[in-house]
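Sample entry (94 residues):
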Amino acid sequence: MFTHIAIHSPKPEYRDEVLASMHRVDAAAVGAAGLIQIGPWQEIEGGRLIGLAIWESREHFMAAAPAIFAAVGDDPFDVWEDRPIESFQLEPAP
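Predicted structure, serialized as tokens:
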């Protein structure tokens, strides 16, 4: 199992644009081999948006990632976000 987490810190006036971008990533991932779950989450107390994707393996994620993230390749995150997107790749601890 492999998990990818992306933490977005949108400027308040661009929250809807960041969320729409996250939904485009989700739509691009539909049908990808090895995808178990994908979708945006929101912080309960705070303005951050969290992209969570769970995959059968890191190899599945790496194979699908270029096509998935191409869907948002032209999105102006440098304008929309207060800080760079934090990205985590996680695997179960032994």
